[in-house]
Each structure stands twice: as C-alpha cells, then as structure tokens.
Write a structure and sequence with these properties.
Elements (H helix, E strand, L loop, with lengths): L1 E9 L4 H13 L4 E6 L3 E3 L10 E10 L3 H14 L15 E7 L4 E2 L4 E2 L8 H10 L11 H6 L7 E2 L9
Antiparallel strand pairs: 1-4, 1-5, 2-4, 3-4, 3-8, 6-7
The structure holds 7,8-dihydro-7,7-dimethyl-6-hydroxypterin (ROI).
Length: about 170
C-alpha cells in the first residue's frame, strides 16, 4: 500500500457540492482506502481573475493502484462530474483532481508529474495538506508545514462545513 495525496478543486456548478461528491466518489475507488480529508477551503482563483472563487480540499488515500491507474480513475471521475477539457489554460472547471504525492516517488512521464509541479507555491494545496499531514516531507526533503508557513499569500478561508472520511 502506498499513501497518496489528492488535491481537489472546483469553481463551477455548486463547488462545495462538487468537492463533497468527489470525496464520496474517491472513497469508492477500488483498491483504495480514504484515510483522512482536510477541511474545505475557499480561495481566490490563481490565474485569470474573471472566474468564480474555488473550493479546495486535499485527501490522503492508501492505494494499491499504480500512479497511472490512479490517474485514469481520477480523470474518469472528472469526466463523470461533467468536466469538459476546453484546452483553455487555467480556466474555470467543475472538478479538478490532481495527484500531489505518491509515496515518496518522483514521477516524470508524459502524462504525469509527481510531486505536482505547482504544489509548493499554491496555498490552496499546501494549507489543506499541512492540515492533514503537517509532518509530511516531500521527496525533495522539504517539510510541508515549513512550506505552508513560508507562503507569501495565505488568503484562504476555511469553511465550517465538515466532511466525514469514514464509511
Ligand atoms: N485557483 C484556485 N484558487 N484553486 C484551484 O484549484 C485552481 N486550479 C487551477 C487554476 C486555474 C490554476 N487556479 C486555481 O487549475
């Protein structure tokens, strides 16, 4: 079993509902077990500002799936949620599921780069990740908590809503 961390984001079609449904869908993936999920956070869009705010969360998952099999499954869940890839960079999306970390592995293939290339600069990834895994260290040796503490911009609003990781 490998522990993997998945970043979840949505800013269309009732994003809170999208993120909660995504967590429920992730729970039901074969050969995977949801360990813990972060709070939900509201964040201003990174990239073009003419789009709604995002809801973000991070979950920890134990998996027996290979990185690419997990990627296939997450992309299927994005599609089932109604995501259409328009080729427009950094535009609004119904659901984004990113493999942030896969054990301590460094993966650089055509389809998948792990650790996720933007995670060290993104407060909407690092703060939820630090909430559920403060002691986690990246393959580079950097501590998640340290990276989170050193973010320049911490505009992020934790929502009072709770998500149950069990069941
Ligand atoms: N901005 C925020 N705040 N949250 C996201 O999940 C997110 N995802 C993206 C881009 C468009 C880069 N901006 C984002 O893919």
């Amino acid at each position: 079993m490998i522990t993997t961390y998945i970043g979840i984001g949505s800013n269309l079609s009732d994003p809170v509902k999208q993120v909660k449904q995504a967590i429920a869908a992730i729970k039901s993936i074969d050969k995977c077990q949801l360990i813990v999920c972060s709070s939900l956070y509201c964040s201003q869009p990174m990239g073009p500002q003419d789009q709604p705010d995002y809801i973000n969360a991070v979950v920890a998952l134990q998996t027996q799936l290979s990185p690419l099999a997990l990627l296939d499954t997450l992309q299927l869940l994005e599609k089932l949620a109604g995501r259409v890839r328009k080729g427009e960079r950094w535009g609004a999306r119904i659901l984004d599921l990113d493999i942030l970390l896969y054990g301590n592995e460094v993966i650089k293939s055509e389809r998948l780069i792990v650790p996720h290339y933007g995670m060290k600069e993104r407060e909407f990834v690092l703060l939820p990740l630090a909430e559920i895994a403060p002691d986690l260290t990246l393959p580079s040796g950097e501590k998640v908590q340290w990276l989170a503490n050193n973010l320049a911009d911490k505009y992020l609003k934790k929502l009072p809503t709770t998500v149950d990781a069990s069941g």
